[in-house]
Design a protein that fits this description.
Helix content is 41%, strand content 12%. With 417 residues, the protein is an alpha+beta fold. The strands form 3 sheets. It has a 5-stranded mixed β-sheet. Strands 8-7-9 form a 3-stranded antiparallel β-sheet.
Length: 417
């Protein structure tokens, strides 16, 4: 790891210079080296000392108001107390951050614009393949002692080994959501839901992949039409895709005429689907962050009759992480922020639905009694079941190559016709 240095003030021309350099390298068809630097093994006190005075630019999806407020109003002030300035950089797509990092690697930048990224799935895998992430640093974080080292959601990311290249941040569970006033007797299986859609035309739709939530809905349907998650290999192969994908796209194609607007158009984002649900145009929405539903009902965005649909077979679950780019010049500061984000106090604050409502990555049995008490005091939601109930029978995420292939296959087989 390079020695820390103050964050330089860049001139207004710097992004343009970087873009030109990246374009030149791309035109030459070159690629960044796959080998990423690994963190130096050193005492945590030394990391803290070197982080003091650094600025950490955290690139993250900017469309979640509660998430933005948590970082700005809770995490950033706590980081400042440790001598680290945390600046949130909102992006529409995490891939934007990955592309910036890869451009910086091609240009030989060592003090880049990105210091920390909220990431998982194919974006993490893409970065790993290109050596975009600093690795072998998470074992140094004191906060990792509060996590279960055997938790499969934390050791792999969409089937890709984490290997110390990202620190866990929170867990998520794919969840379907319905208005009980309009759907008094909801189905209890995904196959039953698809039948309900056909019996109630125009009252359901899903975001068009590659929207993150629309994409996971497609993978959930893949599990159903394949006979269960055990029938879908986690690691992608063309043979498995050719065997399983046709039934998926046939089922979604059959479903399309019963969707909102006859399937002629799809919401482009989860936010658009949520608005349709809030306006009463559809009876069902979906989310990978169900704990946020409590606040959406309390502030009147969603109807008071909003409820979570628990499926008998379970749904797909995963975890989100924080990764440090290999091009960051504030790697020590980023490590400090990642460790702070793992602390029981921050995890409990983030789990409060009034703050953000994200499920913790901590193993509560590993906490001191006073820290465990903070989680025990979190208000029970009249809308959202506990994480333990939501994640019962949870399916693992498929490998990132599945995600890309299914998204593209959906576009050609379902959207194009």
């Amino acid at each position: 790891m390079s020695a820390p240095r103050p964050r330089r003030r860049r001139s207004a021309a710097a992004p343009a210079v970087l873009a030109v350099a990246a374009l030149a390298v791309t035109t030459a068809c070159s690629a960044p080296a796959a080998e990423a630097p690994t963190a130096e093994d050193r005492p945590w006190d030394e990391v803290l000392a070197e982080a003091d005075g650094q600025t950490v630019r955290m690139w993250m999806y900017g469309g979640d108001d509660q998430g933005n407020a948590y970082v700005d109003d809770v995490l950033a002030p706590a980081a400042a107390e440790l001598g680290v300035t945390l600046e949130r950089v909102p992006v529409a797509d995490t891939g934007d951050a990955v592309n910036r990092i890869l451009s910086e690697r091609r240009a030989g930048v060592t003090d880049g614009e990105v210091d920390l990224v909220w990431v998982n799935g194919d974006n993490f895998a893409t970065g790993r393949q290109a050596g975009a992430w600093l690795c072998d640093w998470t074992d140094a974080l004191p906060g990792m002692a509060y996590t279960d080292p055997d938790d499969p959601l934390l050791t792999t990311d969409f089937g890709v080994p984490v290997d110390g290249c990202e620190a866990p941040w929170h867990k998520a569970q794919f969840t379907l959501v319905y208005d009980s006033a309009r759907v008094p007797e909801p189905p209890t299986t995904l196959d039953g839901l698809l039948e309900w859609v056909e019996q109630n035309p125009g009252r359901f739709t899903y975001p068009a992949p590659p929207d993150f939530t629309g994409s996971v809905f497609v993978r959930q349907v893949l599990s159903t039409v394949s006979g269960g998650s055990d029938e879908v290999p986690l690691e992608f192969s063309q043979e498995a895709y050719d065997e399983l994908a046709p039934a998926l796209f046939d089922r979604l194609g059959e479903l399309a005429p019963a969707l909102w607007r006859g399937g002629d158009t799809y919401p482009q984002t989860l936010q658009e689907l949520d608005q349709l649900y809030a306006d009463g145009q559809v009876d069902v929405t979906m989310t990978y962050g169900p704990a946020t539903l409590t606040q959406l009902v309390q502030d009147g965005t969603f109807p008071a009759t909003t409820r979570v649909l628990i499926l008998d077979e379970g749904t797909i679950g995963n975890a989100s992480f924080l990764a440090i780019p290999s091009t960051s010049g504030s790697q020590e500061g980023a490590m400090v922020v990642a460790d702070l984000a793992l602390s029981p106090g921050q995890q409990a604050a983030k789990a409060d639905p009034a703050t953000w409502g994200q499920f913790t990555v901590l193993d509560l049995d590993r906490l001191e009694p006073e820290d465990r008490a903070a989680f025990d005091r979190l208000p029970a939601s009249p809308i959202v079941p506990s994480y333990e109930e939501l994640s019962a029978g949870a399916d693992p995420e498929l490998g990132p190559e599945w995600v890309t292939a299914l998204d593209e296959g959906w576009r050609r087989a379902v959207l194009a016709p």
